[in-house]
Amino acid sequence: SLRTVTVFLSTLTPKFYFALTVTSSFISGLIFVFEWWHFRKYGTSFIEQVSVSHLRPLIGGVESSPPAPTAFSAGENEPSRQSMPECKVWRNPLNLFRGAEYSRYLWVTGKEPLTYYDMNLSAQDHQNFFTCDTDALRPSDTVMQKAWRERNPQARIKAARQALELNNECATAYVLLAEEEATTIVDAEKYFKQALKAGEMIYRRSQNCHSQSPQHEAQLRRDTNVLVYVKRRLAMCARKLGRIREAVKMMRDLMKEFPLLSMLNIHENLLEALLELQAYADVQAVLAKYDDISLPKSAAICYTAALLKARAVSERFSPETASKRGLSTAEINAVEAIHRAVEFNPHVPKYLLEMKSLVLPPEHILKRGDSEAVAYAFFHLQHWKRIEGALNLLHCTWEGTFRMIPYPLEKGHLFYPYPSCTETADRELLPTFHEVSVYPQKELPFFIHFTAGLCSFSAMLALLTHQFPELMVVFAKA
Question: What is the pTM of this model?
Answer without folding.
Answer: 0.75
